[in-house]
Amino acid sequence: MSSCCPTGALPASYAEKGTSFTPAGETIDLGGGCRCYATGDPRWKTAIVVMHDVFGLDGGHHRALCDALAAGGHYVVCPDFYQGGSIEPYYKNGAADEGKEWLKRFNWAWCSAILERVYAHLDGKGVTSTGSIGFCWGAWAVAKACQDPKRVQAGVWCHPSCQVGRELYEGETEHELAQRVRSPTLILPSPQEPELYRNGELAAIFKANGIASEMEYFHDQSHGWMTRGAGFLGKSWFDSGGRENLTSMIGVQRGVNLTLGWFAKHLHHK
User: Fold this and answer.
1) Could you tell me the CATH superfamily of domain 26-265?
2) pTM score, whole prediction
3) φ and ψ at 47, to 5 degrees?
4) Virtual CA dihedral for 264, 246, 223, 184, nearest 10 degrees?
């Protein structure tokens, strides 16, 4: 049986089950427990910091996504905020509430300390502009990072779960997070996220603050489609309705293309 996508259309880890995947990048240690996956060439002078979902760096297809973004002309770094951990075991054991308690340790004080090491690494590589994309939980981290436009000049929220800000951390609502964002932001929601991501509420906040924003609604996808890891409300992507088929593969490629276009527009200084 042939693959649903042409050879080379997507990173190998998105292919049919049993297909081997060899990451193009490498694992690097930035000290202080900051392990990262890094891929691409810093000579492009632009970088993308990838914020993983609640399955962690080693869950889903984060490395494949990083490689796809690097192939678009960027140096890409995905820090492991959970230090090898994942909420997946809690999901599998039907203990989502315990998983939320575990997630509480990774607040903004924790994440920002890790990001400072990442930024120092990028500075040392000669990077001049940086974007960030986050998935699920990671979209919240992107929103926080984009409050400092000197460090992150553009952000992408993909199947966002920014409610973790008010449920687990500093108490910021999705609207308050948007109010504090100072970098252009692209939102890529699916039907399983709240309507506020696509009904214009957040767009109005960005516009009032003079922050460029766009939204592309992925009506035919399931939460988690870009990473194939964490799904919605304590389930995996597959258990949330995700399926490995042509529609979902097109969704991944559209997400990658839109992200690369957003960064091409906002990371290259005139």
Assistant:
1) Alpha/Beta hydrolase fold, catalytic domain (3.40.50.1820)
2) 0.94
3) -130, 155
4) 10
CA 51, CA 141: separation in Å to the nearest integer?
7
CB atoms within 10 A of CB 59: 21
Q: Are 246 and 4 in contact (CB under 8 A)?
A: yes
Q: Has residue 11 got a pLDDT over 70?
A: no
Mapped onto helix, strand or coil, the DSSP state of residue 161 is coil
Domain boundaries, the chain: 26-265
How is residue 105 written in tokens?
A: 């340790």
Question: Residue 102 has what pLDDT?
Answer: 96
Distance CA 163, CA 165 (A): 5
Phi, psi (5° rounding) for residue 111?
-65, -40
Cα separations in angstroms, 1 against 16, 40, 50, 169, 209: 10, 33, 34, 47, 52
Residues 251, 231: Cα–Cα separation, whole Å? 15
Angle at 121 between CA 118 and CA 125, to 5 degrees: 140
Work out the number of other CB atoms within 10 angstroms of the CB of residue 255. 24
In this prediction, residue 68 carries a pLDDT of 94
Alpha carbon dihedral 95, 197, 241, 4, in 10-degree steps, equals: -130
Q: Which residue has the tokens 């890094």?
A: 38
Q: Report the 10 Å Cβ neighbour count for 57.
A: 25
